[in-house]
Design goal:
The structure holds two protein chains of two kinds.
Chain A lengths: L1 H31 L11 H4 L13 E6 L6 H7 L1 H7 L2 E6 L3 H11 L5 E4 L2 H9 L8 H10 L2 H6 L1 E2 L2 E2 L2 E7 L2 E4 L1 H7 L7 H13 L17 H24 L8 H14 L14 H4 L8 H4 L5 E2 L21 E4 L9 E11 L4 H10 L2 H14 L19 H11 L4 E4 L1 H4 L2 H16 L4 H11 L4
Helix pairs in contact in A: 3-16, 11-12, 19-20
Chain B lengths: L2 H29 L4 H30 L13 H8 L1 H32 L5 H13 L2 H11 L14 H8 L13 H27 L3 H9 L4 H12 L1 H16 L3 H6 L9 H11 L3 H31 L1
Classes of the chains: A alpha/beta, B mainly alpha.
Chain lengths: 460, 321
């Protein structure tokens, strides 16, 4: 009996010791981890002067959570390296396709990231409403005043308080095409919507389906159709009606927006026009948005309406230039003089005001980061990233599409509007609009689609 | 987190578990002398705590939330339930769920039973059984991705090859490729096939054990009476394994009511394939409509309860025998 008891106490003691050991190992292992990502510090020593104001952040970690996944995520991680090398902080980047859903869940559950790259001002407002987001520090606000206009600052503000500096931007009113095909067949880049329709008819008459599109994107399936509808809403009803539509001053199933969706249907639900190289109209719903424009390279499709960031989806080695394999032209307005531009962007929202998080936020809002990121994107993914940051040196954009987009953004004639579904509440912009658009492309009528989206608008 | 931190965390979790169990055993040893029933309560204690916090409290809270509006602030009574039974999208969700629950258990059990009878006592029985059981070893998401590729569609154009197994077979047989996942209502059945594929192994395992447990003398007697194969099945096998069949049917039925991974991975709930579990996830977390999401969850719970009650009754009845 006594031997049993002593062996029991022995077991208990050893178990307790084991836990104590593991605890100490864990606590020292967790915070230490790996310091700066082991890059050469020699090259960075001169440039570290720019980071001196952030101080020494050795051992500190900042977590970044975003919906940007491969292949667009690597340039982001690379652009953080100068910050990591000079301040010795560690930036942990997590990309998640279900970001728009998960960020709300994480915030409500009390475990938000340090910084979230939010692609929707509507979602930004919701996150701020949870009370977990922190206002941007003065350094960031100063940067934004210096490098962006008042409209961009407004997109990152909620109720007059400024929260999130803009990050990247994208121009969405672009149509991708093959310059070779156009010169060979003698097509001209259209300057009005009517010319675009005529061009589509001309190509269709040769037996080829002129347009290709793909909308599959996991939980976000359907979002490219929302871009189409917003582009047409902007063009057919004008920027003021667009603003009213986005803020629900006119109903989603009003005559203006129904007409916009029907106009999109004239292209996307027209089986003479789609889906070049990919099948019939329903194949739009099952083709991923990344694959949607690739048939242009195979010659089975001529036109693909997609944003400027699409450039990084072409295989490496594709020449994206006015005289190359593929290029884009500006999606025209009703009249040649109209210059409405639909665009998007991301915003860096912080949930913590720790000094290292604020330092990183300031870095991200600076022109230094914009130029670093632009250079890296141009090298590794052939471009596909721009910012509306006025400090961005256009010479850093080697990709002709980026140059085109930046030029469009800075053109004084441009009437810029932010992507509508990103401004609407999440129940619409991240759920109903996408779902009903997907149902619409696979057979639902326009009237049912807009009615259902209107019914889903939150009543508060 | 790098790998050493992960391993350390795992070690810590295991040690914590060992510590809790050790503590319980220690207390149980000490109180053994006083009364045996206290030992029982000591063992139950951690489980009761965890079930109350992790299961009971959220369940009560969800039922409570289902009577409130989207933000969880204003009391709306039965409005959410009314929406479920009147909105056309939600009625579709209910229809699909009913289809799933009616088709999956019966077909999976039938396939499992047939397979169990066919391989019973045959050569290579163990190998055959492991083949059908293999799908249970992979996650539902992995199975969904496999079948997503099987159903993959590529247009019938020169220079384009089919990459989906099903469409390739159809093309070989002279047909034209179809959008299996998009065309409703048949796409729901194609999704159900995935669930059947996963569950048939489970059905077969339980039913095979039940068949082997049928006393030899009954089978001998039936054979002596000159029974045919089908008669053997109808009059001897099936009645003898009835309790196991019911257990299998109800277990698969409950699992099917909860199906979420298959629908979410393959269609995201689009193309009229949405089911209750996927819809309450969408409403609660994407549309931020706590009220409707909770109402759907409560509905699911209400649907499951009768099956569980029946299952427990059957178990008690078979134990009493």
């Amino acid at each position: 009996m006594s031997s049993k008891r002593s062996s029991r106490t022995l077991a208990a003691l050893s178990g307790g010791l084991g836990i104590a050991l593991a605890l100490t190992a864990c606590s020292s292992g967790g915070s230490g981890g790996t310091t700066a990502s082991g890059g050469t510090t020699t090259a960075a020593s001169g440039d570290c002067a720019a980071f001196a104001s952030y101080g020494d952040l050795t051992g500190k970690t900042v977590s970044v959570y975003t919906g940007i996944v491969t292949p667009e995520d690597q340039p982001y991680m690379d652009s953080y390296k100068p910050f990591e090398d000079c301040t010795h902080a560690k930036i942990v980047y997590t990309g998640d396709k279900a970001f728009e859903t998960q960020i709300l869940v994480r915030t409500k559950a009390g475990s938000p990231p340090d910084i979230a790259i939010v692609p929707q001002p509507g979602l930004l407002a919701q996150l701020v409403a949870t009370g977990a987001a922190k206002e941007a520090p003065k350094a960031v606000a100063d940067n934004v005043d210096k490098f962006w206009g008042a409209d961009w600052k407004a997109y990152g503000s909620v109720d007059g308080k400024f929260y999130a500096a803009p990050s990247g931007a994208s121009v969405k009113s672009l149509v991708w095409y093959s310059p070779k095909e156009f010169t060979d067949a003698g097509y001209k880049v259209p300057t009005t919507l009517d010319e675009l329709k005529t061009l589509s008819d001309t190509i269709a008459a040769t037996g080829k389906k002129p347009w290709c599109a793909g909308i599959a994107s996991g939980e976000a399936t359907g979002w490219p159709i929302t871009d189409w509808m917003e582009d047409f809403m902007l063009r057919l009803s004008g920027p003021d009606a667009y603003d009213q539509w986005v803020t629900h001053k006119i109903a989603f199933n009003s005559a203006a927006s129904t007409a916009a969706l029907d106009a999109v249907g004239g292209y996307l639900k027209n089986d003479k026009y789609v889906n070049g190289g990919l099948g019939d109209v329903t194949s739009i719903a099952t083709t991923t948005f990344q694959d949607g424009g690739l048939p242009i390279l195979e010659g089975t499709c001529s036109l693909h309406r997609q944003a400027s960031f699409y450039a990084s989806n072409f295989p490496k080695g594709t020449k994206v230039a006015e005289d190359g394999d593929v290029y884009a032209f500006y999606l025209p307005g009703v009249k040649a003089a109209d210059h409405p531009v639909l665009g998007g962007g991301e915003f860096n929202l912080a949930f913590s005001d720790r000094p290292e998080v604020q330092a990183f936020q300031t870095y991200l809002s600076s022109d230094l980061w914009a130029n670093t990121k632009a250079k890296i994107s141009s090298e590794s993914t052939g471009g596909g990233w721009i910012s509306a940051n006025k400090g961005l040196d256009v010479a850093n954009l080697t990709n002709p599409i980026d140059k085109l987009s930046a030029t469009i953004l800075q053109d004084p004639k441009t009437v810029f509007r932010f992507d509508g579904s990103d401004m609407m509440p999440a129940a619409i912009g991240s759920d109903a609009f996408w779902k009903q658009a997907t149902a619409w492309i696979t057979g639902q009528s326009t009237k049912d689609a807009v009615d259902k989206i209107e019914a889903a608008w939150p009543k508060s | 987190m790098d790998i050493s931190t992960k391993l350390l965390t795992m070690l810590l979790a295991i040690l914590l578990f060992v510590a809790v169990v050790g503590l319980m055993l220690f207390i149980a040893g000490r109180t053994e002398r006083r009364s045996a029933s206290i030992v029982g309560y000591v063992f139950l204690f951690p489980s009761i705590i965890m079930v109350s916090v992790g299961l009971l409290y959220p369940a009560v809270r969800t039922i409570f939330q289902s009577f409130f509006d989207a933000a969880g602030k204003a009391f709306v009574g039965l409005d959410n339930y009314q929406t479920i039974f009147t909105s056309s999208d939600d009625l579709l969700v209910l229809r699909n769920t009913v289809l799933w629950v009616v088709v999956t258990p019966f077909v999976a059990t039938a396939i499992g039973l047939l397979y169990a009878i066919l391989v019973d006592g045959a050569r290579g029985e163990a190998f055959a059984k492991s083949l059908i059981f293999l799908p249970m070893a992979i996650s539902m998401v992995a199975a969904s991705i496999i079948w997503k590729f099987v159903y993959e569609f590529r247009p019938d154009q020169p220079g384009v090859r089919q990459i989906g197994l099903l469409n390739q077979v159809v093309v070989w047989l002279g047909g034209s490729p179809q959008q299996w996942i998009v065309n409703s209502p048949w796409n729901t059945f194609f999704l159900i096939v995935v669930m059947i594929w996963i569950q048939a192994g489970f059905a077969m395992t339980i039913l095979s054990a039940a068949i082997k447990a049928i006393p030899e003398d009954i089978i001998e007697a039936a054979r002596l009476d000159g029974v045919t194969a089908i008669g053997m099945f109808r009059f001897v096998t099936l009645p003898s394994i009835r309790p196991s069949v019911i257990v299998v049917l109800t277990t698969i039925g409950i699992g099917t009511l909860k199906v979420f991974d298959v629908v979410r991975t393959m269609t995201g709930g689009n193309f009229n394939t949405n089911v209750v579990a996927n819809e309450f996830y969408t409403q609660s977390f994407r549309a931020s409509n706590q009220g409707l999401g909770s109402a759907l969850a409560v509905l699911l719970f209400v649907l499951v309860v009768p099956i569980v009650v029946y299952n427990v009754r059957q178990l008690r009845a078979s134990e009493a025998r």
